Amino acid sequence: MSRLSQRTYPVARRLAEQLTAALALPAAQQPHWPDPVRARAVAGLLHHARPIVTRDETARLHDRLATVARGEAFLLQGGDCAETFADNTESHLRANLRVLQRMGEVLGRAAGRPVVTVARMAGQYAKPRSRAVDALGLPAYRGDSVNSAEPTPAARRPDPHRMLRAHANAAVAMDVVRGAGAGEVYVSHEMLLLDYERAVLSVDTSGPEPRLSSGLAHFLWIGERTRQLGGAHVAFAELLSNPIGLKIGPDVTPEQAVEYVRRLDPHGTPGRLTLVSRMGHTLVRELLPPIVEKVSASGHEVVWQCDPMHGNTRTSANGYKTRHFDHVLGELAGFFEVHRRLGTHPGGIHVEVAGEDVTECLGGAGGITETDLPARYRTACDPRLNAEQSVELAHTVAELLCARERP
Ligand code: PEP
Ligand code: MN
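Above: inputs. Below: predicted complex with manganese (II) ion.
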């Protein structure tokens, strides 16, 4: 945090102390770097890395998300589950941006409102894993910023140098985003790997309290596996001025949801916090309403976003991690139903999509079956909707948005 330590004034010093305290808390899903000395050396280099995004852009996204929270705009977030260095090409990035743009056009027409587009891009290189060991008995792949997906023990050894490559790749991707002519697109990733996230912070005194602005992405979210209330990720996010997302799965109680909202949106700032529900299509209608009611009663204006992907993952008979398009749509329909009934705003969606013709999710108009999966199953982690399924999904969400408008 060189930008901080160079300054000695009290605000910066207090934030630096708070950061140290936050990062000393238990942190789930962190790699065990085999050579801690080398990891520290890399962290030192990262502190001199240049920002990927500007503070002005991040502030503008915050304003846009406030309009989403008030029901005046719709949030579309999407992209790869895991970006890879190998796929960090102009053609892959542009294809993903193009599918987001097509989805945004469909949604914008239906909603009659602006669509705020946030890509999972330019930094989505770290993955939480349910199991530390994969099916072959090797240490799990944790994203290109930690190790390699290649199935050998050497490739799976965490290598801190990869964090520098992640930063360099993110910078290149951001240049593509800026030059793609895809309209106003913000970038986001899961705030997971704390040795990476603690770099490129600057003091931001523009808000209700001094905070740290991350230059690594406009929007950062806390994942389902790292949202422990006593853990480092929540404490770190509290210190950031960037808009924050929080994934909430079926275990979250309404009381916990309110606790998250109090911690992460202490000043009641619309747009500050996005709650991303990922309950699964069978549970959303039952589990989401009491959470929405209790958070609404607390007076905080959050963005309600539906991730219809991560609660609907299963393994196909032929051994592929997949999702069925109907289950994805089922969770979205449930999410809209709940908000319609409670009179709250279904603010947006968070999806894993690829601009290419991949065969990773089942169903859709193309009727992808289990036997089709091997043909073009290319994801480094979770299955993504292909371009056709993504646009079809946007049309369905558009119908749900229009149905909402009708009396
Ligand atoms: C993800 O967004 O890729 C992810 C791992 O989601 P979750 O934390 O909701 O499981
Ligand atoms: Mn995923």
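The longest strand covers residues 74-79.
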